[in-house]
Amino acid sequence: MVYSTDPNFEYVTDTEPEAETLPAAQQRLRVWLDRKQRAGKTVTLVRGFVGSDADLQELARMLKNKCGVGGTAKAGEIIVQGDHRDRIVELLAKAGYGCKKAGG
Question: Are 43 and 103 spatial neighbours (Cβ–Cβ below 8 Å)?
């Protein structure tokens, strides 16, 4: 931000509007297992969510509670501690999300 003496100056930001959350049936989520750069510990990643950060956090909270583990949601992906890929695919399918296993 820059100080201006112009009385008609309006500060304009270049923030992008937050993406509108697609309905669960239109979401195409991918569920991965990952061990890279995690000290050998396995995590389950859910990628491909299109929507607001609040909705992403809510979905992550539901998955973590149902699996009984910790994790986080950031940068458009959900990270759940441990190998819970099968359980997460099952939970997402029950909730109406389009999802499939990805990766090896």
Answer: no
Q: Are 72 and 61 in contact (CB under 8 A)?
A: no
Question: How much is the pTM?
Answer: 0.78
Asked whether the beta carbons of 80 and 46 are under 8 A apart, the reply is yes
What is the rounded average pLDDT of the residues 73-93? 93
Biggest CA–CA distance in the chain, Å, is 60
Hey, what are 82's tokens? 């441990």
CA distance 13 to 10: 10
Neighbouring CB atoms inside 10 A of 82's CB total: 16
pLDDT in tens, 22-58: 888 888 999 999 988 888 899 999 999 998 999 999 9
